[in-house]
Write a structure and sequence with these properties.
Elements (H helix, E strand, L loop, with lengths): L18 H8 L3 H8 L7 H14 L5 H7 L7 E6 L3 H6 L1 H16 L3 E6 L3 H13 L5 E4 L8 H8 L3 E4 L10 E3 L3 H15 L4 E4 L6 H16 L6 E3 L5 H12 L7 E4 L2 H13 L9 E6 L3 H4 L5 E4 L2 H16 L13 E3 L10
Parallel strand pairs: 1-2, 1-3, 3-4, 4-5, 6-7, 6-8, 8-9, 9-10
Antiparallel strand pairs: 10-11
Helix pairs in contact: 1-2, 1-3, 2-3, 6-14, 7-8, 9-10, 11-12
Protein name: LacI family transcriptional regulator
InterPro entries: HTH_LacI, LacI/GalR-like_sensor, Lambda_DNA-bd_dom_sf, Peripla_BP_I
GO molecular function: DNA-binding transcription factor activity; transcription cis-regulatory region binding
Length: 354
């Protein structure tokens, strides 16, 4: 055994092996060990190999705290995610469960961890990010639910904190790397499909109007409806909950010129829409066509099964996580949208009754 090695009982004092033990065995400074074990420049190849050999001989394993403080480096770091949603609602939202599982799939590959917080507003979210970065609790963060003129964008850019925005790059002002789907193209595809079936009155149950993707979808819906000569579509805002989706559906179906087709911004609201249609004595799709967004398992459990804009949300979360590690590790970041949601027709859409 080399000089300074400890054997199975741990470090020289019989406790947990530390980075100082590795430095002593390799006969280098603690700083050199930190650089070598985190894959950073600043030490020669021979020194790096000597340090790694010493760490292996001692059985050194980085602590969770050390990994979170290590910053850039393969297999290191904690990723932050803050969501401005009530905990109860988030637990019912298939999108975020799939999105987080996609992020976790990449973190598992790197032995990294996710630090998740739920907050009441964007100001509190900014405070959380500042605290995380000041104490180096995270290597970088993911931003979701981007708004137009979002105050989080300049705040994180000013911190110098590595971050990736899950949203259209037009919402970031070029200050943060963005990963996005082409919502405009997706909306155009579903409206053209409904128009081809013969629908002329199309409505939408949307999300929070302050959110960037909600605004993008609203503008795209109006533009393609005008282009196709359809009646001006009506979009009602909601908080994405099933209760709000049901309320909006009742309002649309109680109007004098009720729509013959409704597009929903998530699956929960579309499922609620089927229930409301049955409550009002309408048959889906004979009297009303419904189309959901995201295409979770919920869409295949309803009767009839919901037509949906199918979106690989798990893959989207994984792409966001991989992009964040590219930013943290200062690698070239691929530019371009994630795959556009694809329409999957099922039993809830058909030509309108005459």
């Amino acid at each position: 055994m080399r000089r300074g090695a400890t054997g199975p009982e741990g470090g020289p004092t019989g406790g947990r092996v530390t980075i100082r033990d590795v430095a002593a065995l390799a006969e280098v400074s603690v700083g050199a060990v930190s650089l070598a074990l985190n894959g950073r420049p600043g030490v020669s190849g021979a020194t790096r190999e000597r340090i790694r050999a010493a760490a292996e001989e001692l059985g050194w394993v980085p602590s969770a705290v050390a990994r979170s403080l290590a910053g850039p480096g393969p297999g290191s770091g904690t990723v932050g995610l803050v969501i401005t949603r009530p905990a109860r609602q988030l637990g019912l939202e298939p999108f975020y469960m799939e999105f987080i599982s996609g992020i976790e799939s990449v973190l598992e590959e790197r032995s990294a961890t996710l630090l998740l917080r739920l907050v009441r507003d964007r100001e509190q979210e900014i405070a959380v990010h500042r605290g995380w970065w000041r104490t180096r609790r995270v290597s970088g963060s993911v931003l979701v639910d981007l708004a137009e003129a979002d105050p989080r964008i300049p705040a994180l850019a000013a911190l110098g904190m590595p971050a990736v925005a899950a949203g259209h790059p037009g919402l970031t002002g070029g200050e943060l790397t963005a990963v996005w789907t082409d919502d405009s193209a997706a909306v155009e595809a579903v409206v053209r499909y409904l128009a081809m079936l013969g629908h002329r009155r199309i409505a939408r149950v949307g999300g929070d109007p302050e959110l960037g993707h909600t605004a993008i979808r609203t503008r795209a819906l109006a533009a393609v409806a005008a282009q196709l000569g359809l009646e001006p579509p009506r979009s009602l805002p909601t908080d994405f909950s099933g209760r709000a989706g049901a309320r909006a559906t009742r309002m649309l179906l109680a109007s004098p010129n009720r729509p013959t087709a409704i597009i929903y911004d998530n699956d929960i609201m579309a499922v609620a829409g089927i229930s409301v249609a049955a409550e009002l004595g309408l048959q889906v799709p004979a009297d009303l066509s419904l189309i959901a967004w995201d295409d979770s398992q919920l869409c295949r459990l309803t009767h009839p099964a919901l037509s949906a804009m199918s979106h690989d949300v798990h893959g989207y979360g994984a792409l966001v996580a991989r992009t964040l590690f590219d930013v943290v590790e200062r690698r070239a970041v691929p530019v371009g949208p994630a795959p556009t949601p694809v329409l999957v027709p099922r039993g809830s859409s058909a030509p309108p009754a005459h």
